[in-house]
Amino acid sequence: MTPHIPPEWAPQAAVWAGWPRLPEEWGSAFAGAKDEVEGFLKALAKVTPVNVACGSRAAYGDAHSRFGDHANISLHTVLSGDIWVRDTGPVFGTTQNQLVANLFRFNGWGGKYIMPGDDMTAGGIASAELVQRTQHDFILEGGAIEIDGDDHLITTRQCLLNPNRNPDWTQAKAEAALRDALGVTNIIWLDQGLNHDHTDGHIDNIARFISPGRVVCQTPSGPDDPNADILKTVETDLRRGGLDVVTVPSPGLIIDEAGTPLPASHMNFLISNDHLFLPIFEDKYSAEAISIFDQVLPSTTIIPLPARHILSGGGAFHCMTQQVPKV
After folding, report:
1. What CA–CA distances, in Å, run from 130 to 15, 209, 210?
2. What is the 8-class DSSP label of residue 191?
3. Residues contacting 168, CB < 8 A, separation 6+
4. pLDDT-based confidence at 318, cuts 50/70/90?
5. 3 state SS of 211
6. 3-state helix, strand, coil in the chain (%, to 5)
7. What's residue 282's pLDDT?
8. Is 159 a residue of the active site?
């Protein structure tokens, strides 16, 4: 039976997250990333139980030094390359009031980042949750799809039709696979994601549902926004897809130590139990973004938190988490 995938704003029993453990993947941002992840997980744990996939015994010890005996944070030696469990973990759904873990093949974001343990993360989390699992024989990362729980799914051609994932996929084949696995029929395609995004255009950096049929995306910020044209196209295509569109300003130009633009996005938020955890990159456009979220989600508490060091690894709060719905 095809599962129902609840939207992110549905009640959650827990949230899985990763812990930074590979210094070679972070460089000079390693210590700062751990500080930001700690702050985020402690804030999240105030509203939702947190399970941390530490990835190794050494990482478990490191995480334990941060969280100790925190009442709402549990540490697990689930194998994982690093923190990106949105992509390496399962996609949870429900069938006949039972929780089910949908497991997909994973190949390191098209073979670009092969980290030991990432191909074991989904199974490890499913085992820790003691739930039924369904294995799907195609490559899919959780950050590549956005679902509203009411038959809408958004994704990008840049990622899902990329030959480095499923080489034989046409758009028709991709849609058939998504419908069979996730129980959606209304699939809306965007062309591409942010520039310099190593995920090949994940949707969770450009467009997110905040209620059935209602989506939030970004408008360009500043004359040097590296994604100005892409963001304008995203908004246009979402409206053409029949969705109710809300816009917030992007973070604008955020660069790394070498001066290369980073895929900074206010879209990489996590919604959990009536709270929205918004990544902030020390940019001047955050206050307006927070204000807009407050207006359009009056029953949701907006929690802005720093994520500049986490961004150095390629993502933010959504990329490093996977929610477990209540059943």
Report:
1. 15, 29, 29
2. S
3. none
4. very high
5. strand
6. 30, 25, 40
7. 80
8. no
pTM, rounded to two decimals? 0.97
What is the per-residue pLDDT across 43-81, written as a single tens digit (0 to 9) for each?
999 999 999 999 999 999 999 999 988 999 999 999 999
Residue of 114, 137, 134, 115 lying closest to 126 (CA atoms):
134
Q: Which amino acid is at 125?
A: I
Strands of the sheet with 152-156, listed across from one edge: 146-147, 152-156, 186-190
Taking the C-alpha atoms of residue 207 and residue 279, their distance in angstroms, rounded to an integer, is 15
> Who's near 299: CB < 8 A, 6+ residues apart?
274
Measure the CA–CA gap between 275 and 272, rounded to whole angstroms.
5
Which class for 284: exposed (0-12), middle (13-18), buried (19 or more C-beta within 10 A)?
A: exposed
Helix (H) or strand (E) holding 127, with range, is helix 121-129
Helix, strand, or coil here: 128? helix
Closest to 17 (Cα-Cα) out of 145, 65, 43, 306: 43
Q: Please give the torsion angle defined by the CA atoms of residues 181, 194, 308 and 73, in that order, rounded to the nearest 10 degrees.
A: 0
Owner of token pair 């139980």: 49
Indicate the residue type of 310.
Answer: I
pLDDT in tens, 216-228: 999 999 999 999 9
Could you report the per-residue pLDDT of 85-114, keeping only the tens digit for each? 999 999 999 998 899 999 999 999 999 999
| Catalytic residue selected from 54, 159, 217, 319 | 319
